[in-house]
Structure formats: C-alpha cells, structure tokens
Amino acid sequence: MSTRLSRGRPAQILLVEDNEDDVELMRIGFERARFAVDLHHVPHGEACMAFLRNEGPYADKPRPDLVLLDLNMPRMDGREVLAEIVRDERLRSLPVVVLTTSDSQEDVLASYNLRCSSYIVKPVDFHQFSRVVQGITDYWFTLVVLP
Amino acid sequence: MSILVVNGAGAIVFANALAQQLFGYSLTELLQCSVDDLIPLRFRDAHPGLRQAFSLAPVARPMGTGRALFGLRRDGSEFPLEVGLSPVDTDAGRLFVSAIIDISEREQTKRLKEAVEALERSNQELQRFAYVASHDLQTPMRSIASFVQLLGSTYGDQLDDRGRDWIHRTVASVKHLQAMVRDLLDYSRIGSDHLNFESLAVRDVVDDAILLLDASIREAGAQIVVGELPRLLGDRSQLLQLFHNLIGNALKYRGTEPARIDVSAAREGADWHFAIRDNGIGIEPRHFERIFEMFQRLHDQSHYAGTGIGLAVCRRIVNGHGGRIWVESPPGGGSIFRFSLPALSTEPS
After folding, report:
1. pTM, two decimal places
2. Are B178 and A124 within 8 A, CB to CB?
3. What angle do CA B105, B110, B114 make, to 5 degrees?
C-alpha cells in the first residue's frame, strides 16, 4: 500500500530536468518510495513555464503540488524559472525545490534570493537518491501544509 | 616639459633645462648636436626624411597624435616619448619647436595594467572551467554509479559472486572518481581572490572542525586535546577546512593504539605556529615534501582510501593566508603537522 496525500489523490510533482538519466532515477526513486506520485516531466525552463500556465500541449495538466527544478538547463535555466515564478502572482505560492549538481555557494545564495523553497544537491549514487526522494515525500507531502 | 628648438637643417638651436636633463647633455653639447643624434640608431636613417617632409608641409602636430617614438640619452639608454611639433617663422628662418615628454612611466603602468587584466581574465576562465568541469563530470558519474547500483540491487540475485564483485568494483571506482573531482573542485575554489578575512578565535574554528569529525572521532575512539589558541585574521571557512583536513588525517592514519591528537599554538615572532600532533603511523622524512603535492599518496586505496588532494588544499590555504606548512616526525612516533599564520599586528609579540 502506498501513502497518498491527505486529500486522497496522488501528489503532483513537476520535474524540470534536462538529463534523461536523472529523470529515470527520480522515476525509480519515487516508485520505490511507496508514495503515490504523478511525476510530470519537462526538459527545460520554457516548457516548465508553459506547463505551469497550461499553455499549448500542457493545457490539461494539473497544477503541481511541488516543482523539482534543475538549475543548469538549455533554453531557459532554473534561475530564470525562479525569477519568472516570483514575478507571477498566480505562481508565487508554488513550492519550488532546487535539485542540482552544483554545490557552489553562489548558486545556493542566488536560488534562495530568488525565493526557492529548498535547495538540494543531487546525490552521487542511487542509495542517496532514494534517501533524498524519501526525504522529499516525507517532508513535503506529510509534514508540511501545502497551499 | 622638455623643449627643443630645431632649425630647418635639424640643428638644435635651443634646449630648456628639462630637455638637457632628459637627454643627459649640457646646453653647450646640445647646441652642437643635430636632433637626429637624440634618436636611437635603428630609427635614425629615416628621421631626416621625416623631418624634411614635415618642414615642407608644416602643420602643427599636437602631442599624443603621432606614433610611438623613442629618444636616445647620452648614456645610450632609450626611452619612449611623445612629441608635439609647431613650426615658427622667425628672422632666422623657419624653426621647429618640439615639446617632448618622457612616457616611460605611463607605458610601464599601461603594461602592468594589461598584465593584471590578462591574469584576471585567465583566473575567471579557470574558475569557470572548474565549475563546468566538475558539474559536467559529476552528471555522467552519478548515472554510472546509480545504474550499476540499481543493476546490483534489482538483478544481483541472478548473478554469481563474481558478477556481484564486478558491480561492487565498478561502484567503488566511480565513487573514488567522484571524490577526486569533488576535491579538485575544492582545490580550485581556494583562490586568494575569494578570501574573506575576519578577526576570529581559532578555538571556535577547531571546535567546529571537531564537531564535523564527530563520527570519525567516535569510530577511532580518539582523544583530542586542544591547548590555548589565539585570535587572528583569517577566512573562517578555509581555516575550518584546514583543521578539518589535518585532524581528519590524524584520525585516518592512526596506529594500533587509541588515537590521541594534540592541537596547540605558540607565538614565534610575528607569527603563530600551530601544531597538530598525533600518535599515528607517522611519515618517513623522505616523503616530507611530496605529501603536500597534488595527487601524491603514500598508501594504496585498499589500506587508506583518499584522493591525494587534502594536504595540497591545506598548503594552498596556509600560503593564501601568508604562512607556510610543514611536517615533522617526532622521536616517539606519530606526526606533527605545523603551520604558521601571521599574528594580529596590534598584539605584542
């Protein structure tokens, strides 16, 4: 039995990630976390904004409960996405967790200055990946109250 | 400003005191010279022609508009100069007034500025390179480690011991590679341009390092004794890394006895000398220098895992703070890592 959000539906997560391997690892991680999640994926910031605004092919997509955002991506990177979300009053309340390979202080600071909800450095192997995914579901879908 | 007045034939008819000083001649000597004598030999042949061309079409030429020119002093040395020329018609015929300034200093400042700018550019490029290299290298390494682990955890029971051993070896190698890239990135980040100096109590930094090493200290059953430590100017995060690496090494290379580590400081002239003394396996004197070099290791991975970057990082941090680092082997065994850091200047020595 997998756990669900208290409203009885699977949690909606939007993963913004250009690396297919990381997408696959997240997918497996959430599968094994035994928490009911619909994992939506877009490969860069432009698609992310279209998804959040239900534009084009994303017209029918649900509003995510949580966005997992990579920083370094083609076309529109994670920093631009954060800036855009803060500017948009309909999106401002959305929790965005930065999930990136970079552990540089500048990226951490810049992301929090752009009001990201948390900053996670991507784990180096799958065991840690599983722990991170477990941590995300425990914290965001059972502990905190989401908007 | 040096002034030389020259007639149509190039003979000097007047030179002010500054001009005499600049070229190193007396007035009497200058009045017997042609202006061509004040020009380095390699330009001299062309000069009469240029002079004639100017006297045929004499337009006032303001300073700084001509090409780079050089003067020749009496002692044979050359200097870069700038010259402004104005024709003046007098009873004695047409004369040419040349105002000359020595621009060696300006040229030198310009060259220095260019060199500094080039260095800054290459530094920025290096930092950028390190960031990109580490980021772009980490990504495929994460994929290799993760998918091979998944292979092991999902299909491991369909393999025999040998197959599982190979998976184990692959994961261990990738993790070592990951550690090396991470340490290299740390090393590249210790540029002196990132230093953030503050007045700090070294004791606080050492306490933080001990806290970070808590798990290793328990595992080693180590006793750490910290003596009285001074306040000084330093970059907190770099000094934390310094003590973390040195105390961490003392724990890692411990001997068979329970580890005991002493951290102390003593005033030596304008510096504080710090010592981290352990009762570990020690280091042979012939390795004293090379252990501070990049990638230099004394042990293989199976005995002591490591990347060979930790002490290179320590040396870079200490040097960046204006100190030096070295190691000693005390007679009773173990090692003493020592490093110096400048004391606060207001303190009496």
Report:
1. 0.59
2. yes
3. 150
